[in-house]
Amino acid sequence: MTELATDIVVVGGGLGGVCAALTAARLGRRVVLVEELDWLGGQLTAQGVPLDEHPWAESVVTSQSYAELRRQIREIYRAHTPLTAEARARLILNPGGGNVGTLCCEPIVAVRAIDALLAPFVGAGRLTILRRHRVTAVPTDGDRVRGVEALDLESGRAVVISAAIVIDATETGELLPLAGVEHVVGAEAQADTGEPNAIQGPADPLDQQALTWCFALDYRPGEDHRIDKPADYTRFRDLALPFWPGPQFGWTVSDHVTHRPLDRKLFTGDTDEEYLFDLWHARRIAWRRNFLPGAYASDITIANWPQMDYWLKPAVGVSADESAAALAEARQFSLAFLYWMQTDAPRADGGAGYAGLRLRGDVLGTTDGLAKQAYYREGYRIRAQFTVLEQHIGVAARPGHDRAESFADSVGVGAYRIDLHPSTTGTRDTVDIDTYPFEIPLGALLPVRVQNLIPACKNIGTTRITNGAYRVHPVEWSIGEAAGALAAFALQRAVPAAAVRAVPGHLADFQALLDGLGVVRHWPLYGALTPRSRRGYRPPAT
Question: Looking at the whole model, is its pTM more than 0.85?
Answer without folding.
Answer: yes
